[in-house]
Amino acid sequence: MAPPAALLWFRQDLRLADNPALAAARAHGTVLPVYILDDADRGPWRWGAAKRAWLHHSLRALDHALRARGSRLVLRRGPAQTAIERLIGETGANAVFWNRCYEPFAVARDEALKARLVARRVVARSFNAGLLAEPWDFASGGGNPYAIFTPFWKALRGRIGAEGMPASPRAPERLPALPDWPDSDPIDAWALAPRDAAGGFPPGAAPGEAGAQARLGGFIDRALGAYASMRDRPDRDGTSLLSPSLALGEIGPRQVWQAVAAAAAAQPGQSGAAESFLRELGWREFCQHLLFHFPELPRRNWHAAFDAFFWRDDPAGLKAWQDGMTGYPVVDAGMRQLRRTGWMHNRVRMIAASFLVKDLLVDWRHGQAWFWEHLVDADLANNAASWQWVAGSGADAAPYFRVFNPVLQGRKFDPRGDYVRRFVPELARLPDGLIHEPWTAPAEALEAAGIVLGRNYPRPIVDHAAARARALAAYRAMRGPRAED
């Protein structure tokens, strides 16, 4: 008699190591790996073009890894419930295993699906592969979900403790396979990847589990020791570039934590830098917890007072920001990096976001939507929480009077202008001291650099000092007469 078949439903866990759903499916019997492109279930949160392009290559890599183990990846498209029930009918599978997602639509879909499967006497089990701790596992002293990062991080750090995370299971060497495979969509028919994989992604980033592991190892060897001082420098190769892989689960946060903690233990001098990096994993975790407990986070202001805030309708300003043509070089460099590579350095994300919502007073949801479409690491929780943090409307948000000065930020974090020169080449010949504010350059310096302001590079679309004053006035008006800086 053939062993019972189990559907292994891949979602945002596109890896074979540290995959508890895979371990459960193997223990059950024959494994049928399946990925379902469920745009219908996602509704307005259908992945954007950049992440879909990354997904294309990640699925190819996963299928290659499965075939090397005697298995393969079956691709289906449509509502997940329909696709899974059809596969059960086609294969006689009597179990479905998956790793949990925490977006609101996913939680509702999975609960309904599990109930339907159990009613049909199909085993249905889900697991945690994407978080360090489940959102329902701990709360603040008052019993409520955490709304401030620092106490959340202390609680999470304390839960993990000095001993760190337990070792992750390795990828299996072989997988029991079906004697007859159901039909699979050709991945090219999904048309996910109009981007050139060589030029459309961040340099050095390769989709897939092996690429993620290589980047993690390279980061630890190359940049972990200087992470605390270099993480804010977009002109340096100081970050891990793991965010796209974490977003699709090509690598899990437990694996990253284990590797970084082990490196710090082996080289105690790196412990401070390692802790700084682990704290960033904590921020990712915090965002996921916020979204789980407050599912309207991508749509509504966390603080209801912001519902009365005066946002400007500024289509021209929004387009200049999207195109990297604001006249502020570090902002423009970031927006062009996003367009070119599908990724933007985190420090520059904050600068660019601050410029949109505070210098231009454009609603943060416009920025969130643009990032969602263009980021290869688009993550619903992180995107929403981070935009609301900058706007001042979110949980543990930046103070409303914190308005990033794009000139000072550029000078501080890109002191020689190398980042700006890379992505705004029309400014490449300006001296270091002028590159972050070309409108102040003497006529002879502009001429020598081949720049005609207003022709081949824009003048600033807004005066920052005046825009800051306007923003503070708008925030004070919302907060009422007692508002103070």
Summed up:
With 485 residues, this protein is mostly helical. The chain is 47% helix and 6% strand.
Textual characterization of the structure:
By secondary structure, this protein is mostly helical. It has three domains: 5-129, HUPs (Rossmann fold, 3-Layer(aba) Sandwich), CATH 3.40.50.620; 131-168 and 210-293, Serine Threonine Protein Phosphatase 5, Tetratricopeptide repeat, CATH 1.25.40; 304-479, Orthogonal Bundle (DNA Cyclobutane Dipyrimidine Photolyase, subunit A, domain 3), CATH 1.10.579. The protein has 20 helices and five strands. Helix 11 crosses helix 16 (380-391), helix 13 (329-341) crosses helix 14 (346-359) and helix 15 (364-374) packs antiparallel against helix 16 (380-391). The longest helix is centred in the middle third of the chain and has 23 residues, at 271-293. The radius of gyration is 24 Å and the shape is globular. The protein starts with a strand and ends in a 6-residue tail after the last helix. Mean pLDDT is 93; it is low at 481-485.
Total number of helices: 20
- CATH class of the largest domain reads Mainly Alpha
Main β sheet profile: 5 strands, parallel
Which residues sit in consecutive blocks of at least 5 with pLDDT less than 50? 481-485
Number of domains: 3
Termini Cα gap: 74 Å
Q: Find the structural class using helix and strand composition.
A: mainly alpha
Could you state the order of secondary-structure elements as H and E?
A: EHEHHEHEHEHHHHHHHHHHHHHHH
CATH topology of the largest domain: DNA Cyclobutane Dipyrimidine Photolyase, subunit A, domain 3
- Helix percent band: 40-55%
Proper CATH architecture of the largest domain: Orthogonal Bundle
Provide the β-strand percentage band. 5-15%
